[in-house]
Amino acid sequence: MADKKNRKNNRNNRNDYDDDFNPRLRKQRKKACPLCSDANFVLDYKNFDIMKKFVNDKGKILPRRTTGACAKHQRDITLAVKRARQIAVLPYTQE
User: Which range marks the domain in which residue 66 is found?
Assistant: First the structure.
């Protein structure tokens, strides 16, 4: 009976791996803001090619975690996409 308990405890208390290791949680490198990192990159609401990088296939504005933009530039992106929709450069929705 005591042998069964010891075997069970030994199975759960293995010391052959790191205590902090969790294969489900991988540390990902933080994305750099495309507007901060490139000094020549200008966000122009009249340029369709630039605007479509920040909009998904349904026409929704992509979130910060997807675009990698900082908070300041994400607000600028949102404003530019809304202006582009207003002047019909970008559609409000895709069909």
Answer: 2-86
Q: Which of these, 54, 58, 60, 49, lies nearest to 77 by C-alpha position?
A: 54
Q: Which CATH number fits the domain that encloses residue 69?
A: 4.10.640.10
Spatial separation of the C-alpha atoms in residues 3 and 50, rounded to whole Å: 68
- pLDDT tens-digit series, residues 31-43: 788 888 988 888 9
Per the DSSP assignment, residues forming a β-bridge with 17 are none
* 88 Ramachandran zone, left/alpha/beta (phi>0; psi -120 to 50): left
Asked if residue 93 belongs to a domain, the reply is no
Instruction: Judge whether residue 48 has pLDDT over 80.
Output: yes
Greatest distance between any 2 Cα atoms in the chain: 79
